[in-house]
Amino acid sequence: MKKESLFNLLFLALVIMAFYLFFRILSPFFSIIAWAAILTIIFYPPFKRVNRFFRNRRGWAALTMTVVVIIAIIIPAGFVLNLIAKELLTLYQYSEQFIREGKHITFFQSLAQTDLVQRIGEALDRYFDLSQINLQTLLLDNLSKLSLYIASQAPKFIKGLSTIILEFFLMSITLFFLFKDGEEVLTKIKALIPLSAKQRDDMLRKIVEMIHATIYGGIVVALVQGGMGAVGFMIVGLGSPLFWGTVMALLSFMRIVGPFMVWVPAVVFLLIQGAYAKAVILGIWGATLVSLSDNFLSPLIISGRTQIHPLLIFFSVLGGLLVFGLVGFIAGPLVVTICLAIIEIYTAPPTRRKQNKRDKSLGKG
Description:
The chain is mainly α.
């Protein structure tokens, strides 16, 4: 083997190793960088106006917009978390009083006397010996175990909270530098893409449109689900419908969990109260108008702005959540957008390809 060939192989191996290590170093911070990039794209139009106000002093403009974004995230999140903590405390106190006064015994007795439960018991008794099972004791034992488990998770919760604070701090720093140096970074990324100037601009435009559509679509879906949840709470007469509607909207936007984390416990609460009709109404309302609306609205809104088939958007959102976690509800459709853009470029008619090649040669010249 010639020395030149050996040198090229060694250099290629060095490049591969360097980029592999580069990926390994940055991969733990993928979610932080991704969210910072998404927030930069969303808030970049107002950043331009702030930058003009500061007479193109990008450092001060970036610092101002970073503070604005942090305030826009922290204040609503802190307000809602405070309200959730108060409501959970009230719910815990009510549950403790409910059991201490023995109301759970009345509940189990009335539940056991209903026709539905008796029919279910008769059907199960054909296959299982239910005479040895005390449903009340079984449920109370499991509730006690659940309480102990929740208490044991307190240290993990504190550790997780400190991790969230650290990640938010790192995201804020990344956000500042993306505001400040984002245009330079984008110029270097464009230079690495082996396409003509027009093709690069088209691809980046589609990526920005996808991020905007996903974020704004998520906001619309969250408002619809939160509003429908609040209406459902008002129909069955539950307290604080506007607050719980807000909580459902936030859970909808978070994507990992959903509004069912609110309306399902509310259904259980109505069952405990003996309001079986209201529980059925809220259960049907939550399962159809609240939870299922996301499956129809989100793909339609994103597809309408990006011209991508709703079914593909639907699976890209679900697949993105499974692969990337919370950021996947944007990363999934984004990957699909990039792939479809590449396919469109390489399946373009010959006249368009010639024009793109001419644009590329002019760009090099």
